UniProtKB/TrEMBL annotation:
ATP binds at residues 9-16. This is Anhydro-N-acetylmuramic acid kinase. SUPFAM superfamilies: Actin-like ATPase domain. Belongs to the anhydro-N-acetylmuramic acid kinase family. Keywords: ATP-binding, Carbohydrate metabolism, Kinase, Nucleotide-binding, Transferase. Pathway: Amino-sugar metabolism; 1,6-anhydro-N-acetylmuramate degradation; Cell wall biogenesis; peptidoglycan recycling. Catalyzes the specific phosphorylation of 1,6-anhydro-N-acetylmuramic acid (anhMurNAc) with the simultaneous cleavage of the 1,6-anhydro ring, generating MurNAc-6-P. Is required for the utilization of anhMurNAc either imported from the medium or derived from its own cell wall murein, and thus plays a role in cell wall recycling.
């Protein structure tokens, strides 16, 4: 089955589309990457997302405009992927949508809202669409995240020791496969969220992120600021736990800066980069991680990658590309896998990953132009993900 996965993370920098041929083969799920592309949001949609995200207040009219604008942007990207990557032929689109709110109270997820009306995608491609994958896990008592845990677990199963997958998006999340324990997945804290917020603030919007980590590279870590930032109780909480930009946003950083003698801008950026490295490393150490497979936009920041390596001596770091999953496309491919599991009647999350009471079938399905025909339910879930060519 050819599946197109669509993803935009908390950084809302671009919509990633990735196509793959997926086949169940006994215990294995075979994944052949077909190609991927990245499409920036139209300026007006991106602007509306930026002015609507917490801590902003909004109106239902804006929510409607966002649901439509994001849905149309995803639809354009899906149509492009169908044309440019798949020569016009695919079976299914899976859309993550754009997270606008991940509602966490006392460590429990009460709701999660991904916008991007799937009707636009179905209309633009003629294909059935699986969307809203997180809500069902939340309804089953889970965090609704990190949903890449299923794909990560199937992928890491072939590796020795205690491997972990780390994604460095706006938020950093890990999936850990420690021997003798159930697979575990959680958000470690911010990856780029605070760093991007600081860059955008200090450059008055001229830069979106610290390209190549150049500014952090010439800055010096402020021990006082790092101490204040590390004092957040989120880092001490046990998994399962998830977070988002509802917590790690510019006012959060400004409160921390108010508590210390204000460092120079490059020092702030160096400190925030170190914060990500320290919190990722603490999380990995707590679970005995012996090797790390890394993906996400943060892998393009060599200063961040170096700091993570420094904080985890003896733990080899490599990009997911080394296992056959391009680090830019890994999350979009992971969502393609989730939609594939859904239409085969297989759960896309598991209790030790999200904290849900049970492994639920995820998502909502929007029919394409033809009547909806689902494959025969699979007899059993796969235990291994094999990347093929
Ligand atoms: N060349 C680069 N140098 C430094 N950081 C980068 C670079 N490219 C991307 N990033 C970081 O990665 C982020 C986007 O990563 P991504 O995985 O798309 O996150 P998300 O899933 O939250 O959208 C950017 O906001 C930026 O912080
Ligand atoms: Mg992104």
């Amino acid at each position: 089955m050819r599946v197109i996965g669509l993803m935009s993370g908390t950084s809302f920098d671009a919509i990633e589309a990735a196509a793959a041929d997926l086949t169940l083969d006994g215990d294995s799920l075979l994944l052949r990457p077909v190609g991927h592309l990245s499409a920036p949001y139209p300026d007006d949609v991106r602007g509306l997302i930026a002015t609507t995200l917490p801590p902003a207040v909004t109106t239902t009219q804006s929510v409607c405009a966002l649901d439509t604008g994001i849905g149309q942007a995803f639809a354009d990207t899906a149509a492009r992927a169908l044309r440019e990557l798949c020569e016009g032929t695919a079976d299914l689109v899976v859309s993550h949508g754009q997270t606008m709110h991940h509602w966490v109270e006392d460590g429990r997820v009460r709701g999660t809202l991904q916008l991007g009306q799937p009707a636009w995608i179905a209309e633009a491609t003629g294909l059935p669409v699986v969307s809203d994958l997180r809500s069902r896990d939340v309804a089953a008592g889970g965090q609704g995240a990190p949903l890449v845990a299923m794909t990560d677990t199937l992928l890491l199963s072939a590796l020795p020791g205690n491997p972990a997958a780390l994604n460095l998006g706006g938020i950093a999340n890990v999936t850990v496969l420690a021997s003798g324990a159930e697979p575990l997945a959680f958000d470690t804290g911010p990856a780029n969220a605070l760093l991007d917020a600081a860059v955008q603030h200090f450059t008055r919007g001229a830069a979106a992120y610290d390209e190549g980590g150049r500014r952090a590279a010439v800055g010096r870590v402020s021990p006082e600021l790092l101490r204040v930032l590390l004092d957040d109780p989120y880092y001490r909480r046990d998994a399962p736990k998830t977070t988002g930009k509802e917590r790690f946003h510019l006012p959060y950083l400004q409160r921390a800066l108010d508590a210390v003698p204000v460092p120079a801008t490059d020092d702030v950026l160096a400190t925030l980069t170190r914060l990500t490295a320290v919190t990722v490393a603490d999380a990995c150490r707590a679970h005995g991680v012996t090797q790390l497979v890394v993906s996400g936009g943060g892998t393009r920041n060599p200063v961040l990658m170096r700091m993570i390596a420094e904080e985890l001596p003896g733990v080899p770091l490599r990009l997911s590309d080394a296992l056959g999953l391009p680090s830019d496309a890994k999350e979009a491919l992971a969502f393609a896998v989730l939609g594939f599991l859904t239409v085969h009647g297989l759960p896309g999350a598991f209790p030790s990953g999200t904290g849900a009471r049970r492994a639920a079938l995820l998502g909502s399905i929007t029919p394409g132009v033809s009547p909806l025909r689902l494959p025969e339910p699979a007899a059993r879930p796969p235990r291994l993900l094999r990347i093929t060519r």
